[in-house]
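Please go through the sequence and fold tokens given here and tell me how the chain folds. Record follows.
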Amino acid sequence: MTAIVTGSTDNTGYYKNEGTAENIQIELRDDQDATLKNGDSKTVIVDEITRNAQFPLKARAITVNGNASQGTIEALINVIYTWQ
């Protein structure tokens, strides 16, 4: 199975915070700690018996340039799965 991640980014290349906190970006990582930026893909193996696939992800708020302000953190990241 292949997954492609997409979402709005800011000038740092990380996902854009749509909330009220300023100078905050959202970083998406996979289970190998590789950063997944807009348009990146990851392929995982499908279990032939259960026909299940796992695609663990983690997200965190970061500040690339410093001077983060308090507020809300919101982002929309789409994942498109292709099962082959």
Remarks:
- DSSP finds no helices and six strands in the chain.
- The longest strand covers residues 2-7.
- Residues 2-82 form a domain with the Immunoglobulin-like fold (CATH 2.60.40.1090).
- The chain has a mean pLDDT of 96.
